[in-house]
C-alpha cells in the first residue's frame, strides 16, 4: 500500500478528480493548503502599505492505493494537473503500514 | 515639559469653569415657537442615522481592518461607547455642553435631563422638542471617542479604553463642543462667541479632537508587537466595506441633520456631503492607481470617509462644487498622510484615525474658511440685518485665520486632555494589554469569546 | 390536562368572536383631520425601520448565534415571515386586529384592505393615511413570530415553522393585539377597554406573547441533539453584532414610531428607548464581569436587546431616568435568567427568545405600572378633562395590578395558542426535523444550499 | 448589421438633440409654493435609502453571489458608481435629464448645478428644495449602471467597467430618463409627452434599460472561463441576504419616495412595494419547492427582488392587491427565466441582471398598463378637470400598448447604446480581463487586495 | 514510532478525543479535510442551477505514538468513530523516522 | 528523501520560513491545523455558558528534502520555532518513497 500525495493548483482539482474517477479511484481526501516553491507570489496593498504574499493556495490530495495501482495513479494525476507552468505542484509517495475501514474494521488492501 | 505643565493648568482650570456663572439668564426667545412635525421627523431619523454610524457603521469599518483575533474587541470599543457615553451624556454631558455657563463649559442646569422635555430649546432648535435636540447631539458624543480607538486598536485593555474615554470626554469633548456650539461658547459665531469659527457638523468638535487625540494615544501606547515588520492585512474587507457605506449613509444624518430642521439648508448640506464623499473616493483611487498601479477597495472607501470627515466642518456653508474640491483635496492629502508620511514616521496609528480624521478635520477646518459663503448660509447677520460675508470666497479671507485659531485650540485641548487622560488611566488601571494577551488577541483575552467558529 | 381544555375552549371561542358585532358603528370623528406630511414621513420611515429589524436585523442577530450549517435556515425563519405574514396581514390580519369588532377580535370590514386608503383612520392616527397605519402595524406582526423561532432554532422543519406561525398569529397575536390596541379592545385604556393596560409599543403584544410562546415551543420540541454536553458556540458573532445594532436603530421606529406622529411624545419614547438599551448593555456587561471576569461582546449586545425589549411597553409613558432603571433591571434579570436559571432548568431555548423577550417583556409590563406618568403622556383624560394619573409614580399603584393582569392574559393566550398551534402543525406536517437532517444542518437538508463556500 | 447602423445613427443624433432648443421657456408656476419640512424630510431620507440600495445593498447582494476571489472586485463595481456617477450627474447628467430641452434630452442650463438651489423646481416637486430633487434623482442614476455589472461580473476590467458605464449613461440613461420623466419628454404623460407611458419609479428607466443592457453585455463579453461545466456556487449567501434585505428596505425610498412628497400617494406606493416584494418571494419559493423539492434562501431573496423590480413601474398607480398579483407573476416568470430559459440558452448572465431586472422591468411595464388606476393616482387630468382613466382596469386597455411602446423604445436604446458603449470601451481600453487575471480573481489582479485574510 | 492517521465524521471528533484521552493519548493534531469514498454526496440548488457536492467534510486526526500503543490506539479510534454507516472513514498507519519536541529538543519516544 | 513535518505556533510561521529561506529551502507546504498536547486550552463564555476550547490553532509545515539536508533543516526549524514554552510543537520525520514534479515530470531528488 502506498499513499500518493499530490499538491496541485486549486483550479485543477476537478480535472484530477475526474481523471481519477475514470481510473476507478474513489477514495481520497482533500486539504486546503498554501505552498511555496519556485512560483513567485504577489504583492497586496492596503492603504499604500505593501504586503508580500508568497504562500499561494494549493490543494493537497491524498489517496492510499494498492501497490499495483501506484504508477497509473501517479501518471494520471500528473497528466491531469499539468499546465507546464511553474506552480503546478508535486507528487510525493509514501509507504503505508496498514489501513483500517472504520465502518466494518476491514484491514489492509480490503480497506481501501 | 511644557505640555505637561499646560495639561496640569488646564486640568485645574476646567472644573472651575464648569460650575461658574450658573445664574446668568438664558436669553428667552420672544415667543415659544411650535414644534414642526417635519423637522422633528427629520431630526429623529438623523439621530438614528448618527447612532448607526457608530454601530454598526464604524464598528464594522474598524473591525474588518484588524486581525481576526481582535474582531470582537474592536467592535466592542465602539459598542461600549453607545452604552456608556449615553449614560454620561444624560447625566451631565449634555448640560456641560449646551447649558449656558461660561465661554468654556456649560453649567449643570440640565443635569439628569432636568428641564429637557417637549418644549424646544429655542437657542438651538426652535422647531423640535428639546429632547430631540439632546438625543441628536448625544450621538456625536458617542462616535467621537469611538473614532479615537482606531489609533490604539489591537493592544489596549477594555476597561482602560472605557476609563480613558470617559476622562477624555470631560477634558476635551465637552469643553470644545461647548466652545464651538454651546451658547456663549468662545468660538461660537452664532451665539455670542469671541472668535467666530464655523463648524457646521463637527469638523473641529469631532474630527480634529478625535484625530489628534488618536495620534497622541498611538504614540503613547507604542506600536503593536511585530509592527511594522510583520504583515497585518485586514482580516475581512467586506465588513469594512459595509461599515464605510453605512458611514456614508449615516453621515447625511450627521451633516444634513446639523441644520436642525428639514430645511433647504439641510438639503444643501446633504448635497455637499455626498459630493465630497464621492470626490474623496475618486481622488484616493487615482492616488493609488498612480502609486501602486491599482486602485484598491480599501482605498476607495477610505477616500470616501476622508471626504466625509473633511467636508463635515463646512457642509452647511459651502456650494456643491466647493464640496467637490474639498473632497478631492481630502482624498489626496489623507492618502499621502497615511501611505507615505505615516510609513516614514513609523508611529502605529492602527486604523488611521489620525491620518483620516485628524488630517481631514484640520484641512476641512481651513477650507471652510475659504469656501464658506452666505449664498448657502445666511444665518449670520451683520448689524444692518444683511447676511454677513463668511469665507474667503465671500471676500472675508480673515476667516481662514479664525478657522486656524479654532483648529489650534481644538488641537491643544486634544493633546493636553489626552495626555492627562492617558496618564490617569495608566495609573488607575494600566493601559496596554500584556504582550501575551496581545498575542492571543483581544477577543479571547479581554472578552473570552471568538468572533468566528466556522468549524462548529 | 387543564391547559389542553383551556386550549380547546379558546380555539372554539375565537372564531365566534371574530365575526361578531360587525355592525356596531365606528365612532366617527367630528371632522376629518388633514394629513401631516411630517407625521407621514416619520411613520413611513418608522415602518421601514421596523421591517429592517426583522430583516436583516433579527435574522442576523439569530443566524450569527447558530452553528454554521444552520445559518441560512435560521435567516429564512425570519425572512419567510416578511413574505408570508405580509400577505396574511393584508388579507385579514389587519382587520382582525384593528377593525371594530368585539373586545377580543376585530371583524372583517378591512379584509383585503377594503376601505383602507388615503383617508386617515381617526381612531388610531388622525394625521396619517390609513394605509400608513396599516403597513406600520404590519411590521409588528412580522417580527413577533420571527422572535419565537429563536427558541426552536436548529431543529424544526421550514414548512412546519410556517404553518405553526400562521396558526399562532390567529390564535395569539391577532386577539391580543386587538385586545390591547384595537378599538374596544378588552385591555385598551384609550379606546374603551375594560382593564386598562398600558402597552405603548408592544411589550405585551409582541414580547410577552412571543417570549412565552417561545418557551412552550422549546419545551415541546425538546433539546437539540447533543445539547447541552456538546459545545455549540455561535458561528459568527460579527453577524449577531450587526443584527443587534440594526435592532437598536430599528427599535426607534418600533417605539418612537408608536407615537403614530412625529410629536414630542415620539421624541420622548425615542429617548427612553435609547437610554434603556444603553443601561441594559451596561448591566449585562457588569453581570458578566462579576461572574466570569470578562464582559463579552455577546453579553453587551444581549443586554442592549434586553433593555430594548423591556422598555418597549413603557417607552411612551416613562421619564428618561425611569427608562435607565428599567434598562438596568432588564440587563441583570435577563442575564440571570439566561445564564443561571436556564442552565439549571435545562430546557433548550436555543437563542433565548424566552430569556430575553419573555422575561424582559414581563418585567417591562410591570415596571410600566410603576413608572408610567402623565408628565410624559397625557393622552388619558379624567372625566374633568385633566390628564389621568398613570402609574405608581403618579400615585396610582393599582396600575401595577392592571399590568399584571394584562401580562397574565397575554401569557395564557400565548401558552394555550402555542400548544394548539404546535399540535395542529405536528398532526398536519410533523414539527421537528429528523435527527439525520438536524445533523446535516438546516441549510442543506431544508434549503439545499450552503451559507458559505469559501473554497470556491 | 441593422443594429450597428441604428447604433451609429443614434450616436450621431443624440448630441444634436442634447443642445437643441435650450431657449424654450420653462412653464413658470403661478406662485412659488413653500417648502414643506415634512416632504423635505421624507425626500432626504428617501435619497439616503436609495443610496443605501447601491451601497451596501446591491454591492452585498452581488458580491455574496460570486466566488470568493471576486468579492472586492464585485463590490467595487457598485461602489465606484457611487463615486463617479455622482460627479457626472452634478456636472451635466442632472441637466441632460431634467432641464427643458427637446423630447429626447434636456439642455445644459443646470450644468454644474447652476440654478439648482433652495427654491423648488415646481415642474417636478413644488414642496421641496430643487437640491433635494436633484440629489434624490442622482441616486437612481447611480444604481442603474451598477445593476448592469451583475451580468458581466467576475470577468471585466475595472477601468473598462467605469468607461463603459459613463458612455452608457450618456447614450441610454440620460435620454430615456428625460423621455420618461423630463419636462417635455417624449414618453412623459404628465409634462407634455407624445406617448403616455406610466413609469412611477423607474421600471422602464432603471430596470428595462439596465436589464436589457445587461443581456447585451453578457453575450458580448462571453461566458466566464469554466462556465457552465465548473460549479460556481455563491461564496457567501449571508452577504447576499443582508444585501437583499437592505434592497427591500431601501426600495421604500425608491418607490414611495417617487411620490416626491410624504403624501398619501407615497403611502400607497410604499404598500404596493412591500406587498409585491412579499408576493415575489412567496412565488419564487413555491416554484423552487415544486421544481427542486426545496425552497432556497437564495430563491426567497431573489423572488423578493424580482417582485420589487417588477412593481417599480406601477408602484404609485396600482391598488394593493394588484401589487400582490404583480409580485406573484414576477416571482414565477423571473424564476422560469433564470432557472429554465437561461440554462437552455447558455449565455452567462452571472448574477441574473437580465433575468430579474430586465424581465421583471418588462412585465412590470406591461402590467402597469393593466392595473394602473385613477383610484390610486389622479394626477393626470382630462380636459374637464376630472382624473383621467389610466390602465385597463380603468377601462383604458390601450394603455397596455402605450406601455409596450415605451418598453420597446427603452429596449432599443438599451441595446444600441450598450453596443456602442461596448465597442468604444473595447477600442479604448479593452473590456475583458485576461484569462490569467480571471483565474487569479478580480480582487488580486484588479485591486491588489484580498477580501478575507482569516488566517492572519 | 507510528503515525496513526484517522479520517472520521466531523461530529465524531469529540467522541474520539474523549476516548483517546481516557487512554492517555494527549498529543494529536486535527485538520479539516474533505473526502470522497463510497459515501454519496448531495445536490445543491442556486437559482435552479444544480450543483453536485461529492467532497464531504471530514476531520483528520494525526497522532504519533510509540510502537507499543499503536494497536490500542487504532482500536480505540475505530470503536469511538464507528456508526456502521458508509462514510465512517479510515485509519492509516505510517512509520515515523524520528520525532523532536521543539520546546526542549527531546528526541524519539521522549518527544511524544 | 525525507519529509519533515513541523507543527508550530502560528505566530512563528514567518520566523521559520525566513530561517528556511536563508538555508535555501524554498519548497514547502503549510496547513492550518489545531492541536492538543501538554498546552492547556482556554475557556470561552457565551451568555454565561462555559465552553472549553482545548484544540489550539497551530501551523503544520511540510517539506520534502534530500537526505543530506535533513538534519540542518530540523535544526533550523527547531531553533526558529522555539520559545521554550509549552505548546511550541513537534517535528516529525518520515521516509519518502518518491517525488515527481508535475510540471516537467522530474523524479526523485531532482523534483524537490
Ligand atoms: N520540497 C517540497 N516539499 C513540500 N512541498 C513542496 C515542495 N516543493 C514544492 N512543494 C509544494 O508544491 C507547490 C508547487 O511548487 P513549485 O515549486 O511552485 O512548482 P514547480 O517547481 O513544480 O513548478 C508549492 O506551492 C508547495 O506547496
Ligand atoms: N483510499 C483512500 N485514501 C485516502 N482517503 C480515503 C480513502 N478511502 C476513504 N478515504 C477517506 O475516508 C472517508 C470515508 O470513506 P468512505 O469510503 O465514505 O467510508 P467507508 O467506505 O469506510 O464507509 C472519505 O471521505 C475519505 O476522506
Ligand atoms: N504525539 C503527537 N502527535 C501528533 N501531534 C502532536 C503530538 N504531540 C503534540 N502534537 C502537536 O504539537 C502541538 C504542541 O504540542 P504540546 O504538547 O503543547 O507542546 P510541547 O509539549 O512540545 O510544549 C500540539 O498542539 C499538537 O498539534
Question: What does this entry look like structurally?
Answer:
The complex is a heterohexamer, with three copies of chain A (about 110 residues) and three copies of chain B (about 450 residues). Chain A has two helices and seven strands, in the order βαββββαββ. In chain A, the strands form two sheets. In chain A, strands 2-5-1-6 form a four-stranded antiparallel β-sheet, with helices on one face. In chain A, strands 3-4 form a two-stranded antiparallel sheet. Chain A is elongated. Chain A has one domain: Alpha-Beta Plaits. The mean pLDDT of chain A is about 95. With about 110 residues, chain A is an alpha+beta fold. Chain B is mainly α and about 450 residues long. The radius of gyration of chain B is 21 Å and the shape is globular. The termini of chain B are far apart. Chains A and D meet through β3 of A and loops of D. The complex binds adenosine-5'-diphosphate (3 copies).
Bound molecules: adenosine-5'-diphosphate
Could you tell me the CATH topology label of chain B.
Ammonium transporter fold
Question: From the helix content, strand content and strand pairing of chain B, which structural class follows?
Answer: mainly alpha
Query: What is the string of SSEs of chain A from the N terminus onward?
Result: EHEEEEHEE
Q: Please identify the top-level CATH class of chain B.
A: Mainly Alpha
User: Helix share of residues of chain A?
Assistant: 10-25%
In the predicted model, the low-confidence regions of chain B spanning at least 5 consecutive residues are 1-32
CATH fold naming of chain A: Alpha-Beta Plaits
The count of domains of chain A is 1
Shape of chain B: globular
What is the fold's blueprint, element by element?
The complex is a heterohexamer, with three copies of chain A (112 residues) and three copies of chain B (456 residues).
Chain A: E1 2-8, H1 13-23, E2 28-36, E3 42-46, E4 49-53, E5 56-65, H2 70-81, E6 89-95, E7 98-101
Antiparallel strand pairs in A: 1-5, 1-6, 2-5, 3-4
Helix pairs in contact in A: 1-2
Chain B: H1 2-19, H2 37-63, H3 71-98, H4 130-148, H5 158-181, H6 203-221, H7 237-256, H8 264-292, H9 297-311, H10 320-345, H11 353-371, H12 398-429, H13 435-440, H14 442-447
Helix pairs in contact in B: 1-12, 2-3, 2-4, 2-7, 3-4, 3-5, 4-5, 4-6, 5-6, 5-12, 6-11, 6-12, 7-8, 7-9, 8-9, 8-10, 9-10, 9-11, 10-11, 11-12
